[in-house]
Batch of 2 targets.
Target 1
Amino acid sequence: MKIAILPGDGIGPEIIAQAVKVLNVLGEQFELESAPVGGAGYAAHGHPLPEGTLALAKAADAVLFGAVGDYQYDTLERALRPEQAILGLRKNLGLFANLRPAILYPQLANASTLKPEVVSGLDILIIRELTGDIYFGQPRGVRECPDGAFKGQREGYDTMRYAEGEIRRIAHVAFQAAQKRDKRLTSVDKANVLETFQFWRDIVTDVHKEYPDVALEHMYVDNAAMQLVRAPKKFDVLVTGNMFGDILSDQASMLTGSIGMLPSASLDANNKGLYEPSHGSAPDIAGKGIANPLATILSAAMMLRYSLNRAEQADRIENAVKHVLSQGLRTADIYEAGTTKVGTEQMGDAVVKAL
Amino acid sequence: MKIAILPGDGIGPEIIAQAVKVLNVLGEQFELESAPVGGAGYAAHGHPLPEGTLALAKAADAVLFGAVGDYQYDTLERALRPEQAILGLRKNLGLFANLRPAILYPQLANASTLKPEVVSGLDILIIRELTGDIYFGQPRGVRECPDGAFKGQREGYDTMRYAEGEIRRIAHVAFQAAQKRDKRLTSVDKANVLETFQFWRDIVTDVHKEYPDVALEHMYVDNAAMQLVRAPKKFDVLVTGNMFGDILSDQASMLTGSIGMLPSASLDANNKGLYEPSHGSAPDIAGKGIANPLATILSAAMMLRYSLNRAEQADRIENAVKHVLSQGLRTADIYEAGTTKVGTEQMGDAVVKAL
Ligand SMILES: CC(C)[C@H](C(=O)O)[C@@H](O)C(=O)O
Ligand SMILES: CC(C)[C@H](C(=O)O)[C@@H](O)C(=O)O
């Protein structure tokens, strides 16, 4: 089993180092190979997704990704900016299914800005389509406005689109995920305004026929953003498009108050995947040794579960993380009075020890 | 001064009746004329926005709108569904600037699902562009997918677009609103992915030159959705496009826990406007006399301020609302132990009395 390790920028290398430490003590024969990505890719090879990095990611059985982005790359032209590496990896590897759990660990119930009774025990799964929608639709650009009151002016434009097969395959992923949980799926769309999402609703409704044991509900995206604030625990699994999923999955993760704890998986049709923490590269705290490595370690656990067929190893890591939380160990982002503040390495070491 | 009164469906007629009562005791010479809209428009004339209703709205100096939508219209084809009336009014009246305050009244601090320290004193203003973006962009529809892996299948598609002048005029509204408040504007976009919103960012940055006294910050929409959960009080004014604004303004209003209190204004280039509560038609409680009329009454206050040049009357109404809250009167949606539960009419009467 070959794992591509792409640390990236900011806190990426520090947190990835802890996940690698964890992988190395499992007693498995993994081949780990690293390559630069994002700003580090640009610095090394003039491109955020260097050819060698993409080739490695393609050849590997799974990709463990840190985070990308740092101040010095902010002024580059868009095609060279770090986040293009993420978009390029998703598209080139066909990683169409993004799984974003939003879980509030009981030990961290106070971390949320929401009242404990609203979020304690929160455990929802957001499934975001990741290779379609307005993210990649053509045509797009800046052109002369062809009609209407602003005819002749410049206008920016993009194309939102979803083909039937694209919707079907993400719907299957979502219904199957719901089957393994509480059997309730909320499909989020904007069918009252968008043709793309009326079509989305029609296709999801059709796929539902194959999953009669799952209760399907349709919800408009504006309402979903409200319900995530009002009563987030009412959800089980949510599925939506790339753009709405970008917004809602970040909103949902912030409900927990501990985004430093949340992993993510982005899967292709054969369960090959890219695994990364839900948080960003946090350049402001990079190199200080204080970043929380748990989201990355839990991403490695997801990798073991989904791509490497090592469910028990995944369980072991997840239990080890719960154990260190119960021991009261906290990085700065989740620290509260009465717990023990530790740095990135100490946290990684504690998980290794708990294993 | 002529005011078009469009009660609509569900609780619309009940809450509008209270706002009309309030308008009638101000001692002003307003001419009020009603017409059916939404489901009621369809029931009366076969269309959610009947010709006569649109003509009235066009002829009036301002429009006071209740809410639209009810179960029996859910199965109509999209073009005849109640919400098409809203889209039609916005487009036909050129109501491009939607002002959505999210205010947490101190008396209702407990209503929020967020911790008091996170939201008490919340007072943000979301300005949403309302006649452009993917809501109205052409082409759109369902077609044969022209290229890529799904070529030949059916696909749904829509066009996102913003012309320079469209961005400029909403940016001016936003900068001017910020000047009257804390002089901080957050422009929300997705410039890292969308051409439309890279263009948006460029134009907003350019308009900023005319408002050097306002601090401008650009923020990605996914981050904005997170910051609204993490630290909503850090915002002053937010401005964004139609689609992102739909999501974020609803999310923000739910932060207060009292969406029954929140008014909205939708303005054209000459400050003619449509005023409506931020909440919906709530068909489940329609006719029960328990709906909260305060958002509609406060919408009437916004109407007096923005379209009818009666700032003092607006102040009077807003103070009257604060007064009844201080008296402890609450409709069911904002009721808590120790306060006095009242119905829709009683609440309207209390505001009238406070005036
Ligand atoms: C960096 C950006 C392109 C990306 C996205 O919008 O998908 C990020 O926000 C994410 O959610 O992974
Ligand atoms: C009903 C719908 C078309 C409308 C919108 O999306 O604009 C509503 O959600 C709103 O925000 O007023």
Note: Chain B touches chain A through 65 residues (CB under 8 Å).
Target 2
Amino acid sequence: MDPKSFIENHKDRLLSELFELLRIRSISADPSYNDDVAKCAVAIEGHMKSIGLENVEIYPTSGHPIVYGECLVDSKLPTVLVYGHYDVQPADPIELWDGDPFEPVIKKTDIHPEGAIFARGACDDKGQMFMHLKAFEILKEQGDIPCNIKFMIEGEEEVGSMNLESFIKNYRDKLACDVILISDTGMIANDVPSITTGLRGLSYVEVEVTGPNRDLHSGLYGGAVANPLNILADMIGSLHDEQGKITIEGFYDDVEAVGTEERAIMAQAPFSQEEFNASIAIPAEKGESGYTTPERTSIRPTLDVNGMWGGYIGEGAKTVIPSKAFAKISMRLVPGQNPDEITQKFINHFTKIAPASVRIKITPHHGGLPYVTHTSDPAYKSASKAYETTFGVPALPVRSGGSIPIVALFEQVLGAKSILMGFGLDSDAIHSPNEHYGLFNYFKGIETIPYFYKYYSSIRTNP
Amino acid sequence: MDPKSFIENHKDRLLSELFELLRIRSISADPSYNDDVAKCAVAIEGHMKSIGLENVEIYPTSGHPIVYGECLVDSKLPTVLVYGHYDVQPADPIELWDGDPFEPVIKKTDIHPEGAIFARGACDDKGQMFMHLKAFEILKEQGDIPCNIKFMIEGEEEVGSMNLESFIKNYRDKLACDVILISDTGMIANDVPSITTGLRGLSYVEVEVTGPNRDLHSGLYGGAVANPLNILADMIGSLHDEQGKITIEGFYDDVEAVGTEERAIMAQAPFSQEEFNASIAIPAEKGESGYTTPERTSIRPTLDVNGMWGGYIGEGAKTVIPSKAFAKISMRLVPGQNPDEITQKFINHFTKIAPASVRIKITPHHGGLPYVTHTSDPAYKSASKAYETTFGVPALPVRSGGSIPIVALFEQVLGAKSILMGFGLDSDAIHSPNEHYGLFNYFKGIETIPYFYKYYSSIRTNP
């Protein structure tokens, strides 16, 4: 049976099973929901067993458990590791939801005229993760499982996947694979499928500028003492030049330039600068000279102040020269750049430009490696062909400006690339009230995934 | 009887009367002390009557009352209006006091080996204000009152003197005077008497920079959107040039340059850059090229960020591009500069340098006029001579970097200059725990003030 017919025949069950999963309040961030998270792991375990996966097991961690199951058909076939998560974001602010976040309902929207499932986790990631289990059912029913398939579904993605690294290091052999398949991202539009091929890395530092050892009266001392806020503002201002380039020495040294051809393909993705500006109500865009907005947010590194504070920030006027000023500064990195090296370059530069009248302290926070899957990768090609089969058009490669640190981690520990076959839309309101996931997207995902296995097996066994 | 003998004969009473006053918890900022403030006004009224002032009256205001009394001896003699205040700062943090802030005790300190009175208001301003009432007693006892003397003692100085302006406007004729005498400042040291001749004015603005209409994910949007914090930092950084000069167009246009001679006299005041830096633990000073630290804090205008905030300022790392960034910015002004004009110049400049990618909102707070009494003023000369008589050395003219808006107000409404005969020391911890006032300073003030009247009457009647 082909995927489309399977879905047609089982539509009600495919929905009711997902709805049951969505009813479980598996909020990983709030310890008062620990029992619900555990219950959700058991539900996933049940689904894995019922579709015929083997060696299904719930692996406890020092946080929430990881559910694993596999189907090893032939050691000569390629192996795909499916990663997803069954935990969800908290539902706050609950009063902004139109209904109970944990009682899924189907409602039509402008973007989803055929209806969308409204519930916390509908898209992120229960809906998208569950597609993979249902796609496996199709393979099973077809009696043709073209790859070895492993499932690793965790319960801590929304709180930083703290225990995933030690798990994959401990079970490196069990998790051995040729590629990792993840549906936890989005695509451009329902008629413009896309695959996320790049993720930016991150370097994040907190800086503290100290002037006098206590807050001073700005009348009595003003003019003769370096004011840490003025100094920090000036230093931050100097981190970009007139062209929007970052002035940190050596910052761009290791950036892998993206070729004209890939930039041309990227430029095919529909984009309106006018609509972009209107969507966030900005009077004009601003960024590095020589690049478009989609390029600035994907293939170019950035530096942003994420928070800054110091002095008197209450109501009214107080005349103080603060002893200290603070800023949180993050840099998004692109392939070639190493977060530790960039952090060190920042520290060197910031220390160098600090005037003698202040003291500087810089504390690095956790960073993340940038990531890229090249469009020449067989797994990428297989995924793109799968989309073409079911959507009628090939998927566009898209580099995302965000960071998913686990993807770089998988590459480091398991030595395998990840294919980010996301079926969500930007408008799905993940992490926000009224999260939803289109019926079109849910069923299209289930329909598309089996083709990935088919094409990937074929391209790997007959390269 | 000369002032010195009077003090010797009445020492115990001069202290016990002040102690009684210090025991009254006249905290103007806290409405739960309203009764104490009222009680203090009555105590001042009693003192005025007991020393023989006439037309003594408590004038209610919409806040705390003003106590007035006068001694008009001869319309041909000059008239001096004494201003002071009987309200005090709150005593918080109370746990940092060595004893009850409202139970005065005498203790020796390194700077006050002969002892100092420890209590809230000991220096600011009950002790200094009370010196004037006691100095009048001396004149009375001498039987020679060389000036018409008016006393105006208010109860809202520590909360901004909100009702003083309307009072002096309403009673402009009653308060008519040739000069105003105030002891609510300090002097350099007990062996280096000084008179505050200049006060800086103030312009204070709050700026708000808006980029996108909501906080954005710095990964998804970073690089393509003006970050209000980066923009505001850059704009603030540009407000000073390499020489520490303020770059606002026309900022220095109306600054009255201080002549070489006055700068030379100012330079006589003892000052050690090394000790200054050590006192506030700064690695190096910083300010406008071509001026010393005492000049930078007195005769030159400044621009300081008093507070700045935006984005994520909690623990850890969040990757947000904030919708808004804020700063409170104040400028200290010197004679010649007008606060309203400077505020307008700031607004013009800041609006002009803002990039097209953000929106700017600027809210002015209350400002204040700068003030100067020239050393050629007869009242200044009289005061300086009075110090010379009792201290053995003339007072140095000192310009303070701070602002006392009422002094400019007196000049505007009453058309009279103020002489700031302060006897406190910087180390007296006014507004802080363990406020104190040296016995030397208290008695020396009482001794010095009568000579001011004598010399001022003489210089005015025989110019």
Note: Chain A touches chain B through 83 residues (CB under 8 Å).
